[in-house]
Amino acid sequence: MVEPLPQVTALLPVLLLAFTGLALLLVDTLSPDTRSNTSMAVVSALGALAALAATVWFVASGTGSGDTGGAILLFADAIKVDTMGLFFTAIFASVTSLVVVAAHDYFHDHPNPATFYSLTLFAATGMSLLAVANSLAVVFVALEMVSLPSYVLVAFLKQNRGSVEAGLKYFLVGALSSAIFLFGISLVYAATGSLMLGDVAGVLGDIAAGTDGLDSRSGIAGLGIVMILGGVAFKTASVPFHFWAPEAYEGAPAPVSAFLSSASKAAGFVIAFRVFTEAFPVGASLSADINWVLAFGILAAVTMTLGNFAAAVQEEVKRMLAYSSIGHAGYALIGVAALTGADGGAAANGAVMGAAMAHLLVYGFMNTGAFLFVAMAERWGVGRTFEDYAGLAKRAPVASTAMAVFMFSLAGLPPFAGFFSKYFLFMGAIDNGFLWLAAVGAVNSVISLYYYSRVVKALFIDDPASPTTLDTIDVRPTALYAAVVFAAVATVLLLPGFGPVIETAEAAASALF
Fold it and tell me: Matching HAMAP family, A to Z (predicted)?
C-alpha cells in the first residue's frame, strides 16, 4: 500500500521558488567566480517552470478543490491551499519564467546579474505565499516578502539615475502604504479579536446582527477595512494610489517593469479577492454599514478612465504601457466591484470574479510580452518614443508581429484572448446588475485602441527617420527575443484553451462564496 503524500507537499510550488532563490544566492555568495549569467538564468527558469508544472499538476488533479475534499489547511489554518491560490501561483510562475529568460540578454553586461535572479525568485515566492494566505498576519508578511525585493529590483541599475530615483520613490510610497495596511489590520483585529479570515468574517456577521457588546465595533472594523482597501489600491496601482507606478515602471529596467506590472499587480488582486470575500463577506459588510463594494466600484471606474486617458497622451512607449497597466487594474477591479450580496448570488459572484482572474492570466502574458519588447528595443538602442519604433517591422518582423498581438489583445480586439477575457468580465458585471460599470469598461476599451494602434502603426507603417537607423540592430534569436515570441504564442494559444481557463477560474472563485 502506497502511503499518501504529506499535506505540506501542497506547498510544493512555493517551496520550489524559494529553494531556487536560495540556491542562486548560495552559489553567488560561496562561489562568485564560478557562476555565470547563463547558468543563473537557466537555473532560475527551470525553478520557475518546475513551480508552474507542479501548479498545473495540482490543478489538474483537483488539489484543494471541493470535489477532492476542499481546501488544504496548514500551519494552524494560517495557510489555505485551494484552486484559487494555485491559479494565481500559475500566473506568478509564468511571468517569472518569461522575465528571467529575457533578463539573460538584458543584463548580459551587468557585473552581478545573479542578484537579479535571486531577488526575482524571492519576490515570486512571496507572491505565491500571498495566494495561499488564510490569515491577515500571513498576508502582511507575504506582502513584505514581495515588496522588499521589488524596491531593490526597481533600483537595480545603480549607475542609472532614473532607476535609483524610481526605486527611492517606490520605497518611500511603499513603506507608507505598508504602514497604512498594517494599521488597518490592527483595527480589524481590535474589532474582531482574530486575524484568521474565517474568524473575522464570523465576528463581522455578529456585528452586523447587532449582537450585544459587538455592534459598537462597526466603526472600528469599517475604518480598518478602508485602510486595508487603501493598501490593496496601492499594490494594484489604482487611482488615487497610482502615482508611483509610471515613475517606477519607467525608471526600472524593462524586465522589472514587466514583472511588477504583471505578477506584482496580480499579487495585489489576490489580496482583494481573498481577503474581501472571505474576511469581509458582502452581505455581512453591507448589514454592518460597510459598503466596500461601492468603494471598489468607484475605484474601478476612476482607475480605468484615468489610466486610459493618461496613456493616450504619452509619447514614450514604456510610459504609455505604465499608464495602460493602471487602466487594466481598473478592469480587474470589476471582479470585486460587481459583487452582489443578494441571496443566491454565489454563482453570479463566482462568474464575475472568475472572469477577472482569467483576465489577469491573459494579461500576464500579453503585458509581460509588451514590456519585454520594450526591453528588446532598449537593448537595440533605438529610442523610447513612438517615432523611434518606426519601421522596426522591416528589420525584426517576428518580434514586431508579436508586439502587434500584444497591443490588439490588450485593446480587447477579437479574436485575441484579451477580447474574450474582457467579454466575460463585462458580462459578469451586467449579470450582477452593474451595467454602468461594464459600460465604463467598454468605452475605455475603445479609447485604449487609439494608443495601442499607435505602436502598431509605428512598427509597420511609418518609415524610420534615417534608412541607416535599423542597420545596427542585432536581431539574432536571443533569449530576449525568444521570451517575446513565446509570450505571443501563449497569448494566441489561450484562445482555444480559454474555455477550460474560465471554467477553472469560475470554479475557484465560486468556492469563496
Answer: NDH1_NuoN_1 (MF_00445)
